[in-house]
Specification:
about 290 residues, alpha/beta, 8-stranded mixed sheet, about 50% helix, 3-hydroxyacyl-CoA dehydrogenase, 3HC_DH_C, 6PGD_dom2
Length: about 290
Amino acid sequence: MKQVTVVGSGVMGKGIAYAFATSGFNVVLNDLSQEILQKASADIAGLMEKSHQRGFLSKVELEAAQANLHIETDLSKAAAQAELVVEAVLEKIDLKINIFQQLDEICLPHAILATNTSTMSPTEIGAQTSRPDKVIAMHFFNPVHKMKLIEVIRGLDTSEETVSKVMGISRQLDKEPVEVNEFPGFVTSRMNCLIGNEAMNMLMEGVATAKDIDKAMKLGLNHPMGPLELADLVGLDTRLRNMEYLHHTLGEKYRPCPLLTKYVKAGKLGKKSGKGFYDYSKGRVVHNV
């Protein structure tokens, strides 16, 4: 399996495309406009060049990875020959279902359709296609080029063959996959949302500053990144959507912190907007990514 399409060229889509291209897969990156894709392609090329300069990619590997990456705005053209499609769009179930229904019509009969979701149901998504046995979730982590984990989440109708293939592909990416039975939030998002939400509640209550809450988690519990730093990196709007979904599916303990809702309403979305729990507007680096 060497032909891969990635739908969505945001932070996660770019990282996933990079991971496949540098691992020898032929990758087509799809998004809504040529302008968006050209910017994404330039970002991926820059990351490839940095990886080469730092000794992670040889000159030959760099050139091969660059040749492996292609961009295409037309989903029909982007996915027509794909053996695996990884969707990496916003965490909105209606949007994902719409894309999967299109892919179901476009893709080869044997193609596997994967969603890079942190919370959504591959069972619900797969049920809207004619191939639920070939629908699965591949949950990558940000930044994709550094994070080793992929959660592989089987839906109710996902076949053993599909799970086996995706576990194997994950290892080809030099990642460590874990197999998870579907339940809202899976393993990591369910735990991480609770920790992050409690950190936001403590900040709102004046227990400690954002910096000291994060420092306590890093130095006291050996977390590589503080929960508020991580929320800023993920995007506070994304975190809020995740919390709302988990609150709806798992109950009251996942009710989003009012401070998170307030920040999103104010347009403070974290690193991508320049301000969140930290101020990035002056180029300040608050964590190593």
